[in-house]
Amino acid sequence: MDVQTELITDLREKFFKKLSDEGPPDPKFHPVDIAKIKEEDSWLKRFLIHNENNVQESLNMLWDTCSWRSKFGTNEITEANVRKDYIESGLCFIHGKDKDGKTMFIIKCKLHTKGSKDLNELKRAIVYWFERLERQTNGDQISIFFDMADTGISNMDMEFTKYLIGLFKSYYPNFLNYIIIFEMPWILNTAFKLIKSWLPPKAIPKIKFVQKNNIQEFVDPNDILTCWGGNNDYVFKFVPEAQNNVDTTLNGKLDNKKVHFAEGSPMTEQSPNSFGEHNIEEQLLSIEPNAIIFNKNGNDIVGTITLKNISAEKPLSYKVKTTSPEKFRVRPSSGILLPQEQRVVSVIVQSGYNLRGLLRNDKFLVTCLPLKDANTSGPELAALWKSEKAAEEHRLGCCDGGFENNEVQKLQSMSSGMSENGHIDILYRKITHLKETNAKLHSDVAFLKYSLFLSILVTIVTAITIVYILKIDIKHFMDQHSYRETGHIHNGL
pLDDT digit string (tens) for 340-396? Predict the structure, then answer.
């Protein structure tokens, strides 16, 4: 669709007039987004194309998008502050091109089951990928590829799917080229009809169902994976975004340090190492206990630490990091402590991991920075943590709280004859995998039983209807025959 330059100028002027008339919203629009509106015609053009050159609708969408990006913290999302296990698992990744040369965003549906992940963290991971795609393609369209091979009812997360569609509809204008759906099981037809109703009418023709025998019609043949029937043997492995594609400089210096706080277990993150010329001579943060003690709490294995700001004058910004973020959920992992304030931080072991292996292999690092103002904004905090100023650091280990009658201890006692911890981990993962597989099969069987019941019910109702109709027809035929015979006899008499 052609967009005249005058419409782009009109949209830009209307946006800044509204901003001037109404004042900045709360939270304020991010400076990066304001700069894009001022300087990038291509971004405004996408809003106009998405809304078929309707300037007012484009303005409403642009305003809502900037508001959402500010509240969601979209411009601050990096691979350093999203769930590492979510972006490294292979559930979502970038690979190959569609037939039009557009980059494909792959979602392997069998790797996700509803309720197995923190939905808010999953949303952040998706936005991370979308923002990375925006930078990688310079805002060009992408195709989303749903790999639905080997999926069942348990893999259909409607809330997650609705969120994904909502991103395209509301916040990433003119970003979608095709929705390619690979080998969707018939059992999910009903669910797909509901999903289809969430899409705008103009998106329906973008949906393309493919199998191994026709995938080449919509995917570049060189990019068809072996699991899709092609010859491309690519296997996903997460690769950090190229440094020249992200804002990794501060005051002209490249910031690409690595934190090594457990031997052989580095955690990549832009990290504070010094605090300018200011040397921290006295301790600012106390932590109790000096190791994270894990105990059973309901269905979870949880450890807690208490952070206290010792200073009577300075607020502190703190962060809690770990060598293995895929194994733990830390809440809250960062924040601000007022003078003399203390806060309890919870560390929850993710399902599927053996506690015994964690105790000797995984470490935690708590860092803090003194602040001048407790009301320091998010962007200002991010800049401070990227600075050359050193933070106070506290290294923590893990230990078993001695809880009894839980699955971890049972597994360890069963495996007491094993000579290596690795064998125990393997056995634990296999048992977890079997449980997940069993749950999936149980869900699919239940759905099949329900479908079979409906089919039988429909068959019975249909049979009864047919018998009823035949009965009426036979009665009608007999009545007509009887009438003809009676009339014939009467005429004979």
Answer: 898 999 988 887 666 655 555 678 889 888 888 888 887 788 888 877 565 688 888
Cβ atoms < 10 Å from Cβ of 178: 22
Strand runs (DSSP E) across 98-201, as ranges? 103-108, 142-147, 176-182
Q: Which residue, among 199, 119, 117, has the nearest Cα to 159 in the 3D structure?
A: 119
CA distance 2 to 330: 49
> What pairs with residue 369 in β-bridges?
317
Strands 291-297 and 392-400: parallel
Who's near 189: CB < 8 A, 6+ residues apart?
none
- Report how far residue 195's alpha carbon sits from residue 161's, in angstroms, rounded to the nearest whole number: 8
Contact between 44 and 93 under an 8 Å Cβ cutoff? The reply is no
Q: Which residues contact 170 (CB under 8 A, 6 or more apart)?
A: 61, 64, 65, 68
Cα gap 353→329, rounded to integer Å: 12
Q: Which residue is associated with the tokens 């296999």? A: 430
Q: How far apart are CA 211 and CA 209, in angstroms?
A: 7
Distance CA 285, CA 202 (A): 56
Please name the residues in contact with 451: beta carbons below 8 A apart, sequence gap of 6 or more. 187
Please tell me the pTM assigned to this model: 0.53
Q: What is the residue type of 212?
A: K
> How far does Cα 65 stand from its chain's mean position?
19
